[in-house]
Write a structure and sequence with these properties.
Helix content is about 40%, strand content about 20%. It has an eight-stranded parallel beta sheet with strand order 8-7-6-5-4-3-10-9. The longest helix has 17 residues.
């Protein structure tokens, strides 16, 4: 983070081998949208997420068949797996025994204190963390009656009630989330809770929406919290392929200077001065370089006003105009290129740069 921003001090826990909190790098999570009982599809999606940089993967386990599938899935994939459980404590216990690296539960819908105690007993035996997940859409009736609406204060009161329950049961291997589809309520809730507890926070804006609206909501909600030092692990929620969530998460982290993964593309929005098909070039380059894990700065510029300057500041870049362009590398002009070859040449030179 920037020099003036201090990360909130939190406890450190481990989800599998991934440290969360205690000053560890902010980790990136996502969730599968396959039917967990479809083992092949779920394994394939987890592998795609892992390749994109997802460090922790959550799976929905709505029934015992999906719990049984978890054991086989776990044996075939690398990232730690979080079991997402609602309503039935037996699913949580089954998931723990099937090898889950952590649980996400809402204690309010799991069946009462005795059943929570049974889950905690099994989690303690396996030394796995539990995320207390509070969602504005499923607050307890008594809290909604008190506040009238799912306000930030209502979300925090709900979280504190669950946290006190776990502490009474001497279980503190926890992380906490307070999610709402309202980004400002999400921000306010995490701020309030950060003053009360030192557990690591999983940060996100739930049910955020489509690619554009959802990315904006997440960038504001997650980004503002991270900039204030709040947040230890994040998930960008989108109504899209979950790989897109991972890509968006790393872009948020990149902008804040927290983590860098994959090339950073700088491209102009185009205007009447642009004389090349910049959109097609950017789309092709972005698609072809997605697998690169290092983080060079790549400029793709379409006019002679800001283009050459931006390209020179990048590790590598092109600036085009009137059916041709120039390739820059480390601030130096390398050669002129016909427009139809700009994308291919840039991709080739970028691969040479990162492999060298």
């Amino acid at each position: 983070m920037g020099k003036d921003v201090q990360r909130r001090k939190s406890r450190r826990i481990f989800v599998g081998r991934i440290p969360v909190g205690g000053g560890s790098p902010v980790s990136v999570q996502s969730m599968t949208n396959t039917d967990t009982r479809d083992i092949i599809s779920t394994v394939n999606q987890i592998r795609q997420l892992h390749e994109a940089g997802c460090e922790i993967v959550r799976l929905a386990l709505p029934d015992m068949a999906s719990v049984h599938a978890l054991r086989e899935i776990k044996a075939k994939v690398e990232p730690p797996l979080i079991a997402d459980i609602h309503f039935d404590y037996r699913l949580a216990i089954g998931a723990i025994n099937a090898g889950a690296d952590g649980l996400r539960i809402n204690p309010g819908n799991i069946g009462g204190r005795k059943k929570v105690e049974m889950i905690i007993r099994e989690a303690r035996n396996r030394d796995i963390p539990i995320r207390i997940g509070v969602n504005s859409g499923s607050l307890p009736k008594k809290i909604l009656q008190e506040y009238g609406h799912p306000t930030p204060e209502a979300m925090v009161d709900s979280a504190m009630e669950y946290i006190r329950l776990f502490e009474e049961l001497d279980y503190t291997n926890l992380k906490i989330s307070l999610k709402s589809s309202n980004a400002l309520n999400t921000i306010a809730a995490y701020r309030l809770l950060s003053e009360k507890v030192d557990y690591p926070f999983h940060v996100g804006v739930t049910e955020a929406g489509t690619l554009i609206s959802g990315t904006v909501k997440n960038a504001i909600g997650i980004g503002m919290l991270l900039y204030q030092g709040i947040g230890d692990t994040i998930r960008v929620s989108l109504s899209r392929d979950p790989v897109e969530e991972v890509i968006a998460a790393y872009e948020i982290l990149r902008v804040l200077g927290l983590r860098h993964r994959g090339p950073e593309i700088i491209s102009c929005p185009t205007c009447g001065r642009c004389e090349i098909d910049l959109f097609s070039i950017v789309e092709k380059v972005e698609k072809e370089i997605r697998g690169i894990k290092s983080s060079p700065k790549v400029a793709i510029m379409g006019c002679a006003v800001n283009g050459p300057g931006e390209a020179r500041e990048a590790d590598i870049g092109i600036a085009g105009g009137r059916g041709q362009g120039v390739l820059f590398k480390k601030g130096e002009i390398i050669k002129k290129i016909p427009e139809e070859d700009l994308a291919d040449v840039l991709i080739k030179e970028l691969n040479k740069l990162v492999s060298g």
